[in-house]
Amino acid sequence: MKSIVNIPAVLLLEDGTVFYGKAAGKIGTTTGEICFNTGMTGYQEIFTDPSYFAQIMVTTNAHIGNYGIQNNEVESESIKIAGLVCKNFTYNYSRKLASQSIQDYYLNENIVAISDVDTRALVRHIRDKGAMNAIISSETTDLEFLKEKLSKVPSMDGLELSSQVSTKEPYTYGDPDASLRVAALDLGIKKNILRNFDNRDVLVKVFPAKTPFEEMEQWQPDGYFISNGPGDPAAMPYAVETVQKAIEKDKPLFGICLGHQLLALANGIGTYKMHNGHRGINHPVKNILRNHCEVTSQNHGFGIDPEGVKNSDKVEISHINLNDKSIEGIRMKGKNAFSVQYHPESSPGPHDSRYLFDEFVELMKKTNNH
């Protein structure tokens, strides 16, 4: 394990706010939109979630790295966050099952981090001022140089990123003899989504983000899945077109997070960039149709227009966020299409929302007479 203790580092926000700390991970400089996650566990899942691509992550839990790194606790093949800000970056780990330290993990993946930051003050600032671009550097503390570099970073608003994290070639996941087949549009899909389908005897074929619908349909799936992913949904007309064609086919369709936003756009409902988004594993959501509440895992910086949903004659609200009343789920009227803004695959948890996979499977069985 390579230690870089006591090398100074700096975090500069777009609005000029500065935080000083210590270098962690790779010595270097990185940029991205800064956001925070309130989860108390699951840091490795956060690091590897493709939806965090081009974002600098602030963890509110005080200790990061304390249970080490385990190879099977990933949501993609590599770390996707642009950088990490934390209070305590823990070099030593206690879990016997872990294969390496977080420091070695970050060095191997060339990820820049800063520790010993007052993350409470930082999160309060982001919560009040909103998400914004930021830069971390352990190479220089020259603020004028860093301001110049930061000024060239594009805003997340209007940015298309899914095609950068999507698979380059189609692949299958699950039992080839499974009773059901789902075609998944990979906009930044998480491995635990695939595991949830496999656990329900569903074979998934995962297609690159810009795959034409006709190519997906040639595989003759029983249903379509539109995945989570990074970036602005309004900058993805190619994916909106795919969703619209899937709706016309009227096979069961299920969307998660970005997939939820694309289902809204496909029905003429707009999206918007949230003040600071929802990121954590403790967000309360009410299922209006079932009249019950669930604690959910969330990671999104965009949402769908509430008035657009309420005025639509094509969709109905199925779930609402109990904190801010934002729309957390919709279903199409007279169609076999539904979506949620949060993450029912929720690794490491909570598991309150796994029933949505069951509902999708039952819908496919009913529609396809299995």
TrEMBL record:
InterPro entries: Anth_synth/Amidotransfase, CarbamoylP_synth_ssu, CarbamoylP_synth_ssu_N, CarbP_synth_ssu_N_sf, Class_I_gatase-like, CPSase_GATase1, GATASE
Region (CPSase): 1-180
Family from the record: Belongs to the CarA family.
GO annotation terms (biological process): 'de novo' pyrimidine nucleobase biosynthetic process; 'de novo' UMP biosynthetic process; glutamine metabolic process; L-arginine biosynthetic process
Source organism, top-level taxon: Bacteria
UniProt-recorded Gene Ontology molecular function terms: ATP binding; carbamoyl-phosphate synthase (glutamine-hydrolyzing) activity; glutaminase activity
Pathway the protein contributes to: Amino-acid biosynthesis; L-arginine biosynthesis; carbamoyl phosphate from bicarbonate: step 1/1; Pyrimidine metabolism; UMP biosynthesis via de novo pathway; (S)-dihydroorotate from bicarbonate: step 1/3
Annotated ranges, domain Carbamoyl-phosphate synthase small subunit N-terminal: 7-137
Residue numbers binding L-glutamine: S51, G229, G231, L258, Q261, N299, G301, F302
Assembly, per entry: Composed of two chains; the small (or glutamine) chain promotes the hydrolysis of glutamine to ammonia, which is used by the large (or ammonia) chain to synthesize carbamoyl phosphate. Tetramer of heterodimers (alpha,beta)4.
Keyword line: Amino-acid biosynthesis, Arginine biosynthesis, ATP-binding, Glutamine amidotransferase, Ligase, Nucleotide-binding, Pyrimidine biosynthesis
Annotated source species: Anseongella ginsenosidimutans
Catalysed reaction, written as an equation: hydrogencarbonate + L-glutamine + 2 ATP + H2O = carbamoyl phosphate + L-glutamate + 2 ADP + phosphate + 2 H(+); L-glutamine + H2O = L-glutamate + NH4(+)
Entry's EC annotation: 6.3.5.5
Pfam families given in the database record: CPSase_sm_chain, GATase
NCBIfam families, per the entry: CPSaseIIsmall, PRK12838.1
Alphabetical list of Gene3D superfamilies matching this protein: 3.40.50.880, Carbamoyl-phosphate synthase small subunit, N-terminal domain
Active-site residues, record numbering mapped to chain: C257, H343, E345
Cited HAMAP family: CPSase_S_chain (MF_01209)
Function of the protein: Small subunit of the glutamine-dependent carbamoyl phosphate synthetase (CPSase). CPSase catalyzes the formation of carbamoyl phosphate from the ammonia moiety of glutamine, carbonate, and phosphate donated by ATP, constituting the first step of 2 biosynthetic pathways, one leading to arginine and/or urea and the other to pyrimidine nucleotides. The small subunit (glutamine amidotransferase) binds and cleaves glutamine to supply the large subunit with the substrate ammonia.
Name of the protein this chain belongs to: Carbamoyl phosphate synthase small chain
